[in-house]
Task: inverse folding
């Protein structure tokens, strides 16, 4: 089983965004040392608890500090951008770090309605035009526009020896169908949806011979089950605070999460979030991942781990690397 990491650059309460971005780079270096397959950085906007709105900037810094691990975006939110601009940016990364760049693409807004309006005009129309935008982006990357097309006269310089590897990220059958139609790899966000992920991914694999798929899951691993469950409280409370527009302080501490005065509805939400997390000791997490592997028929999981303390996040990834013999 391959294991990879999706880093959302979480900002713990009491820490600065710079400290969180530095932690993202440090974690990427550690991921390479531990043997993880790939390391992706996310794109979020107007979310004070998450520090990275620009994956390509982070990837340039991460690439300069690593040597072999594949690095990529999880994801570039394409409706906010022109395809040519994204092709230029990721061709540049692929020129700097040959054979290592993944170009993960998504169509979510990645933030509030106000942030979406500030970022792009006609976002909903851009989402509808996503299939055409994806075609244009792939043609720019592969230099495959037909001669009669106006865009065949331009290239997204620099043109690398090894093009960025495109992936489509999604949480629905619609995104899986689009990835299959365009002939690109597919990453399913298990941690973001309650849809029938295994059915969606298996259908994609059936219709996309020779293409890769992976499944992104939320995981918190610790030396004991009790410790892992306590660590998970921070990210659970943070999501509740976000819903109440109280998430601006960042990821709360375990102590705050334990002492928080939860309503009955919030207690129910906490339990539902816990059910969607993979929590436990290395062996317990392994059992859960292997069960999911059987359901999804995939050989790669991308792990999302959010804790208040960066040390606990690192330890979680270290424990799993050791358990799986990466």
Result:
């Amino acid at each position: 089983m391959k294991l990879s990491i999706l880093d959302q650059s979480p900002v713990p309460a009491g820490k600065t965004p710079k400290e969180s971005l530095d932690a993202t780079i440090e974690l990427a270096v550690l991921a390479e040392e531990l043997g993880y397959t790939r390391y992706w950085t996310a794109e979020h906007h107007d979310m004070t608890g998450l520090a990275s709105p620009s994956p390509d900037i982070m990837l340039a810094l991460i690439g300069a500090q690593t040597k072999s691990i594949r690095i990529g975006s999880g994801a570039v939110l394409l409706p906010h951008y022109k395809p040519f601009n994204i092709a230029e940016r990721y061709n540049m990364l692929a020129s700097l770090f040959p054979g290592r760049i993944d170009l993960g693409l998504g169509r979510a807004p990645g933030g509030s309605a106000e942030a979406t309006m500030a970022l792009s005009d006609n976002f909903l129309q851009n989402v509808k035009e996503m299939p055409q935008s994806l075609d244009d982006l792939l043609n720019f990357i592969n230099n495959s526009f037909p001669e009669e097309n106006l865009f065949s006269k331009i290239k997204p310089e620099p043109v690398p020896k090894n093009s960025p590897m495109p992936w489509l990220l999604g949480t629905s059958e619609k995104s899986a169908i689009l990835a299959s139609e365009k002939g690109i790899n597919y990453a399913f966000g298990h941690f973001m949806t309650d849809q029938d992920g295994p059915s969606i991914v298996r259908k994609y694999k059936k219709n996309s011979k020779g293409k890769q798929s992976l499944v992104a899951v939320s995981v918190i691993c610790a030396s004991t089950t009790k410790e892992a469950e306590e660590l998970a409280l921070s990210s659970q409370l943070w999501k509740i605070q976000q819903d109440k527009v109280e998430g601006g302080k960042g990821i709360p501490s375990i102590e705050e999460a334990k002492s928080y005065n939860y309503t009955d509805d919030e207690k129910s939400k906490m339990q539902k979030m816990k059910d969607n997390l993979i929590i436990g000791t290395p062996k317990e997490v392994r059992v859960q991942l292997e069960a999911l592997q059987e359901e999804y028929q995939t050989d790669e999981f991308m792990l999302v781990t959010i804790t208040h303390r960066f040390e606990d996040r690192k330890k979680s990834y270290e424990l799993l690397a050791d358990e799986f013999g990466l």
User: Anything to note?
Assistant: Residues 2-225+280-324 form a domain with the TIM Barrel fold (CATH 3.20.20.30). The mean pLDDT is 96.
